[in-house]
Amino acid sequence: MKTVAIVGTFDTKARELQYIKALIEEKGMQALCINTGVFEPQFQTDISNREVAAEAGANIEELANAGDRATATEMLSRGLEKLVPRLYAEGRFDGIISTGGSGGTALSTPAMRALPIGVPKVMVSTMASGNVAQYVGTSDIIMMPSVVDVEGLNVISMRVFSNAVNAVTGMVRDYKDIPDGDKPLIAATMFGVTTPCIKEAKAYLEERGYEVLVFHATGTGGRSMEALIEAGFVKGVLDLTTTEWCDELYSGVLNAGPNRLEAAGKMGIPQVVSVGALDMVNFGPWDTVPKEFKDRNLYKHNPTVTLMRTTAEENVGLGKIISQKLNMANGATVLMLPLKGVSGIDAEGQPFYGPEEDKALFDTLRNDVDKSKVEIVEVDQHINDPAFAKAAAQKLVDLMSAVG
């Protein structure tokens, strides 16, 4: 029988969790109840808080007696993060659901993130209508807004809980096991202003027997790609759109963190890298652009996205950080420079056309990249020219063929 794990504080939220359990059983499935409360549960659970705490080397009685809620939550979260993947590997459950406010969400989601991609995961949370990046990370957790507090049962919360149960049981019931393909996986990065390049390169690679995973370079996309590379799924990387570094360095909203552009080098995976969309920093709607940037070259990409052209000085900074990351590589690495423009709006007649700014970027890369580790290939084409895309794709094919 299919089983859904219910993670929650069965000491304080027993009524709500019992309701979820009953809904799961109505669907003809079993519930595996995992208690993450500090105190004794209001009804017997399948996995006790004592077991969860022990996974983190803690004693639940000591945690309860200390009266330190933050420490107790942290230890239970650590224990849950270790326990849940093991229970799944043992076949104890097929999907997972949890509910909570900020504390419950922070407690449960690390364990959900530790599960493989594809395992059904639903988090009903008071935090789900805001920025959920810290909870979801690079996983496929479904965050469902609770609308009202998860305290108590009422006509709103019961409707939300019912929909959440329908979601997780539906995914469990109709789960399709998709086997790994026999084509080598390539990770590629794309932005709206580099789409023609990546579409051309993707088609070129697929014609040659590769499967291409495209990641939108919006912060989450870059982090997701880096995580999959480190997890060993990817055999080659076509990282032509490194724009997330603009936002990381210059206060944009789509940054991917300080470890972007490290995973392929660390894993020794062949990579072809370029400077796609390094002409822009991303902000939200026009009126959200920080006041210190109001006099800069701004471009309204759409009602929710405003772009700011990077300066020559900022491009020097970008060149230095990209050089630093590429110089760390342990595997075959090529840097491709499109000399006639780095994005769809960095071309003659376009709003971000900037030969001087691009020259500052290219010169810095030429000077700072370690040529003994990284091959620099300069192409007298725009990044979206088919010739550039095909050259980059073929270079990656060559690198991958060389390592077998």
UniProtKB/TrEMBL annotation:
Question: Locate the UPF0261 domain: which residues?
Answer: 2-176, 183-400
Which NCBIfam families does its entry note?
A: PRK02399.1-2
A Pfam family for this UniProt protein?
UPF0261
This chain's source organism reads Agathobaculum ammoniilyticum
Which CDD domains would you find in this protein's record? Answer: Tm-1-like
Q: What is this protein's name?
A: Tm-1-like ATP-binding domain-containing protein
Do you know which InterPro entries this protein is assigned to?
Answer: Tobamovirus_resist_UPF0261 (IPR051353), UPF0261 (IPR008322), UPF0261_C (IPR056778), UPF0261_N (IPR044122)
